[in-house]
Amino acid sequence: MSDVASHLENDRFLRALLKQPVDTTPVWIMRQAGRYLPEYKATRKQAGSFMDLCRNADLASEVTLQPLERFDLDAAILFSDILTVPDAMGLGLYFSEGEGPVFERPVRNMAAIKALGVPDPEGELQYVMNAVRTIRSDLNGRVPLIGFTGSPWTLATYMVEGRSTKDFGKVKGLMYEDPAAMHLLLDKLADSVTLYLNAQIAAGAQTVMIFDTWGGTLTPQTYRDFSLNYMQKIVDGLVRENDGRKVPVILFTKGGAQWLETMADTGCDGLGLDWTINIAEARDRVGDRVALQGNMDPCVLYAEPEAIRANVKRIIEDFGLPTGHVFNLGHGIHQYINPDNVKVLVDAVHEFGSALRA
């Protein structure tokens, strides 16, 4: 990114992830660019479809920056989807109204898995890198840009099931019936994701996050063998410094609070937390090895402003340390949230985060 200044006007998000001093608690929100914003819906309509929006670098940048125009957020996150990698493997991704993502050609046996290639980040996935480059340029050093991917296990669930699922019967069935096939799939995905994230970093992402959305559906043994081991492989393969800065890595397993210690052992810089654990307990368990990100229940944003402020205050006070905390929701923001309530949240984080340091 030699053509884009590496100077950041606001770097408290990166500093908190690296446990360096900050003036207040930084905050960003999972899915902060999305359906709860009327301006997003207008741009999405202009694009024609969700994937058309992802593939148009200028429109992807526009929606990435939209929440920053409304709220005093401390980071931007690339507008994309976790399923870009399996889509680039040729599985025929489309989005069905009211049903979510669907793959025309799911993979359910060793032969289909062996036939999968590893996508070229500057080939089949170049549109994502173009979006990263455009967003970095448009941000002009305002706040850091977060790149991301789905974890191998989470990507595999969609690739095997062919769509969203509630029982994970097909993907877990393959895992138990033919573990060698599942390991081959996860290994290919880990290789693909490592290349993909490193390409995002080279294009300008200043932090990367791995979303293990479905890791919490596994047993302790299968979580370690089929999810964490492959996230470990990715962490080991990532470029951790670029443009004269460290590039922090965040792991997030939804429903994974029981495994925080082993997640911290990967060498990541930060752990995302859902709302099912108290952040003080999480901090006590991982010590100073990693920063923590989270972890307000998204449904708090349906409440009145004073209830939102009270919940923000409690989480910041429960964490209780002057750095090492990035405030976020415990999962993505809901589409029916009033944007005014998001402003209440963001402003409260900075207010109470600053008071903690007074």
UniProtKB/TrEMBL annotation:
<dbReference type="InterPro" id="IPR000257">
    <property type="entry name" value="Uroporphyrinogen_deCOase"/>
</dbReference>
<dbReference type="Pfam" id="PF01208">
    <property type="entry name" value="URO-D"/>
</dbReference>
<feature type="binding site">
    <location>
        <position position="158"/>
    </location>
    <ligand>
        <name>substrate</name>
    </ligand>
</feature>
<keyword id="KW-0963">Cytoplasm</keyword>
<feature type="domain" description="Uroporphyrinogen decarboxylase (URO-D)">
    <location>
        <begin position="146"/>
        <end position="162"/>
    </location>
</feature>
<dbReference type="InterPro" id="IPR038071">
    <property type="entry name" value="UROD/MetE-like_sf"/>
</dbReference>
<feature type="binding site">
    <location>
        <begin position="31"/>
        <end position="35"/>
    </location>
    <ligand>
        <name>substrate</name>
    </ligand>
</feature>
<feature type="domain" description="Uroporphyrinogen decarboxylase (URO-D)">
    <location>
        <begin position="26"/>
        <end position="35"/>
    </location>
</feature>
<keyword id="KW-0456">Lyase</keyword>
<dbReference type="GO" id="GO:0005829">
    <property type="term" value="C:cytosol"/>
</dbReference>
<comment type="pathway">
    <text>Porphyrin-containing compound metabolism; protoporphyrin-IX biosynthesis; coproporphyrinogen-III from 5-aminolevulinate: step 4/4.</text>
</comment>
<comment type="subunit">
    <text>Homodimer.</text>
</comment>
<feature type="binding site">
    <location>
        <position position="81"/>
    </location>
    <ligand>
        <name>substrate</name>
    </ligand>
</feature>
<protein>
    <recommendedName>
        <fullName>Uroporphyrinogen decarboxylase</fullName>
        <ecNumber>4.1.1.37</ecNumber>
    </recommendedName>
</protein>
<comment type="similarity">
    <text>Belongs to the uroporphyrinogen decarboxylase family.</text>
</comment>
<dbReference type="GO" id="GO:0004853">
    <property type="term" value="F:uroporphyrinogen decarboxylase activity"/>
</dbReference>
<keyword id="KW-0627">Porphyrin biosynthesis</keyword>
<feature type="binding site">
    <location>
        <position position="331"/>
    </location>
    <ligand>
        <name>substrate</name>
    </ligand>
</feature>
<dbReference type="GO" id="GO:0019353">
    <property type="term" value="P:protoporphyrinogen IX biosynthetic process from glutamate"/>
</dbReference>
<feature type="site" description="Transition state stabilizer">
    <location>
        <position position="81"/>
    </location>
</feature>
<dbReference type="InterPro" id="IPR006361">
    <property type="entry name" value="Uroporphyrinogen_deCO2ase_HemE"/>
</dbReference>
<comment type="function">
    <text>Catalyzes the decarboxylation of four acetate groups of uroporphyrinogen-III to yield coproporphyrinogen-III.</text>
</comment>
<keyword id="KW-0210">Decarboxylase</keyword>
<feature type="binding site">
    <location>
        <position position="213"/>
    </location>
    <ligand>
        <name>substrate</name>
    </ligand>
</feature>
